[in-house]
């Protein structure tokens, strides 16, 4: 399964959201072109990227701006947790948004960048500060 971390966000003692992060996929052409990697650089540095594989705000939760707020919190906390758990840093976060179902607004609000659109899938990314 590779490296991965999962989070559950709570508010007033109740779960409100779940996020899952895992090792980045091996070859994503638009990512590699966006970063400017050669195949050798990708092989060496792929472990520095993590992919947001799941992001769910539970259906009964109605809190404005919660999604972008949680993405921001996660982007700030994840690198240290990853370093502690796996022993290496993270420098880049990425995800894919199915544009037939979602607009990716929460990622835009959290200052992620739209890097490519292919086959109705939006690839978005954020550098870890």
Structure overview:
The protein is of the alpha+beta class. The protein has one domain (4-127): Gcn5-related N-acetyltransferase (GNAT) (Aminopeptidase). The chain has helices spanning 29-35, 39-45, 66-86, 105-109; strands at 4-11, 14-23, 49-57, 92-98, 113-118, 121-127. It has a 6-stranded mixed sheet, with helices on both faces. The longest helix is centred in the middle third of the chain and has 21 residues, at 66-86.
Strand and helix map with partners:
Layout: E1 4-11, E2 14-23, H1 29-35, H2 39-45, E3 49-57, H3 66-86, E4 92-98, H4 105-109, E5 113-118, E6 121-127
Parallel strand pairs: 3-4
Antiparallel strand pairs: 1-2, 2-3, 4-6, 5-6
InterPro entries: DruA
Pfam family, one: DruA
